[in-house]
Amino acid sequence: MKKWSLILITTLTALTTKAQHRLVVADKDTHDPIAQASIYTKENGKFYSAISNDQGEAVINFDFKRLTFSHLNYERKVVTILSDTIFLSPRYRETAEVIVLNIEPKWIREKLRQVVKTKQKVYFSQPRVLSYDYQTQSIDPHSYYSYQSKGLMQMKSLEHDRYSLSQTEGHIISVDSTRLTDVANLRRMLYEDFVDELDGGFINSHRFSENGEFNSPNKNELELVFRSKKHNDDRGRIVIDTARCVIRSAYRITGTETNKRERMSPLLLSMARAISGYRVDKWNRTYHVSYAELSDGTMYPVDVSYKCYMEIYDKSEDPDEKNYDQQSGGGFPNMEATLHLSAAPSLPDSIAWTQLPGSWYLRLSSDKERQQEIKLSHLPAIFDIFREEDEN
After folding, report:
1. DSSP letter at 180?
2. Residue 55: how many CB atoms within 10 A of its CB?
3. What DSSP line would sit under 302-323, residue for residue?
4. For the chain, what is the mean pLDDT?
């Protein structure tokens, strides 16, 4: 009989309160507040951080010589003096606030259904080996972690329902030597691929409008903006080639209600809450993918970016710490990751593959699955301690 255990995502406690400096992190172009920006420093061998809340507000209650501000969608910025507002330069275009009408052209759903009908042949038909470059970063109040992995990726196909990797380079930077290799976000970017998950249910549950301001050198390409019919926290955009009926890129933002419905089992969530008081109070995900075309006409995800921010509590947490966390935005996992795939050079005669299991956030795990997770956390990697100069 298999032994099963419930695996939970855990959090760390917040910093003790000191003299506070309140500030706002904002977009340099639009002046809109930036939520879940990471703010961190390392002083005298200790790491400190904060995370901006939904209004872009953060509280700095620690001393620093240099303070780093980072966000997946913005250029990193290092400051030595704090102002009331810190502006970051955008790296990616955010979803435009285009009104999605209740009435939409009939051809939109017809094109999207054609994408669903042909996607297996276009995106997943052939076994392919690509080069990959994966980078992930996680920050909480007391620690910093980054991991870069490079090598070969065996893509999912009709013959193989799993991705596999063969790492040739691995590099970890962390504040302590206890960190291991982390491919959780890599699995999420691969297995939660937009085209792979696009089906009739998604099409029926969303409204679509064409963005008339979108310009492309390809006259067959246009941008569709979508929003959920039932949930305000699910929206995004897709660029579609109407001639080939393929998705060229996708950008999706989902919030707590949608993520809990799509990514967690209600039964497991209820079990976790009964056992430990575990609950998810906030869960924001931002996902972007661009697809490229191989010489045979098949498509693959060339660039993927992923950001996940979660506020999770259980009954053991102190109410004062929770109150501070709500003010500062700190104390909870703030994860960012990127993946770049490209055509692989000539392959070696023999390749040792490590299979990547599917993605998860809360699940029951068997002994065999736990051993698989342990194996993935021990990929070879060079380790460096995070230093003050790493902030630049």
Report:
1. -
2. 12
3. EEEEEEEEEEEE-TTS-HHHHH
4. 86
